[in-house]
Amino acid sequence: MSYNYSVNKVILLGYIDSPVVSNSEFITFLLCTAEKINRNNNMIGHNEIHRIKIPIGQSVSELIKLKTGTKLYVEGKLQTTVLPDAGTGRIYHKDIIVTNYEILENHLE
């Protein structure tokens, strides 16, 4: 089996679920996505929380003013950071590094 080609692509549509924080490298916030899952013929809601990081180099000045509840479409790639942990050995953080985004519902503070 050849592993010459691979894809690291993430597409999310969700709502900002935390305050927007910025530093010298990234604007960071949590994005909540929701879906309905069929479990034993019952449709139940399922939410996922994703940590979003948008590089400051993109024109993101409008994002700094956004508040919780704003609907966003984001495209990017998955990045895993491994941190040491005294109890289990390692903690894995998965971030979405955004390459493109669109504000769908603008909730300005």
UniProtKB/TrEMBL annotation:
Gene3D superfamilies: Nucleic acid-binding proteins (2.40.50.140)
Record's keyword annotation contains Amino-acid biosynthesis: no
GO molecular function: single-stranded DNA binding
UniProt keywords, alphabetically: DNA-binding
Name of the protein described by the UniProt record: Single-stranded DNA-binding protein
